[in-house]
């Protein structure tokens, strides 16, 4: 077996261990005992039987994945020790996320640097997150130095939803409800000053950009353009969100690899009309980088950008089948850093499965759709859309309980318009910031493209039986994916046999 295959198996063993640990609870003592047999086999058969050594080592890596998930679940931060007490704590730090307006309340992630309790200051220098829930106004900005006076609470699960683990995926283990907030002066290290200063400017630019688009294009088109460009979905009307959901195109306003992957490929193919493949590739990479920075470079967006960049690299090199190690390595690094995302980050799940579909299913289906028209890359867009839709369908049914009957034609017509809408919206925002009058002129183009997208979304969503309500369990999701991967393997083997017969 080739070394690259061995490496791939080890990466998959770790990810599989994290997956098992995400759904099943294990005692830490029992986990440590499970390590004894494989490590014993490694010691006994070292240099005697490498197959047994590799199997035993793979089992140990699998157990390490479970243990990594266990450690993340039971992580006890310093702030967590002072939760659910009867006294008020004073937290000093800075706002470490964008302010999210939830309607009747607002929230943001707060980076705690110092903790005080009555008559005592904790000597340890902290660097922990806490979720702060306050009124909708005033709104605080990223990097604001604040002092919070209030009680620290622990998150609680509700309505069969594991809210504790959901917050833990972002390293948030505590909550502060409506504390008394005052401005504070912090003494941060050089690196943290540079980082907070950089991101505060990015978010400031983002707010100015959104306002410029809003001044140049009327609603709901402005909110839609900001949604596909920056992931700002809060202002999109609920009825429009419902139409997108029914039409199966809600992913275009979500900052996930599902969105970035598809849009990045469409941008790359669009640029091929004007540039060589290598030039178009680097322009597309630059577009992903700018997109990531504009959205604030949060952890979820960075994960999505990595997935989108991986697909671009594979598409540029033309070696789609050799990307499995890269995809497995990206997944390994992500879940190693934060194992909670494997179960609780829907964006990561959609990103990963959409990427698998585009990298592996699309090339296999290409042999069965050879007569698709190549005008405006329709054939490539069709295969990419179908492959991504097939791979994410079980997750969509589980999380959103909607089977969109019109998703395929809606995506085929709307997805090619998304890069044009993003380009027009981006130029509108930039020109609107420089010269508002010019922004109105360019905004008319952005309005025209967004109007067409919204019209198509509403047209498909209003068709009779556009979507069916379907509820499936996690067990059904697993069984469906087992069948899909078996079918992938079947097509792959069939293609290999055909290629061997042709060569002979």
Summarize the structure in words.
It is a single chain. The chain is an alpha+beta fold and 504 residues long. The model has no long low-confidence stretch (mean pLDDT 82). The protein has 3 domains: 71 residues, no CATH class; 110 residues, Nucleic acid-binding proteins (OB fold (Dihydrolipoamide Acetyltransferase, E2P)); 268 residues, no CATH class. Helix 6 packs antiparallel against helix 7 and helix 9 packs antiparallel against helix 10. The chain has 19 helices and 11 strands.
Brief descriptors of the model:
504 residues; alpha+beta; OB fold (Dihydrolipoamide Acetyltransferase, E2P); 3 domains; two-stranded antiparallel ribbon; 62% helix
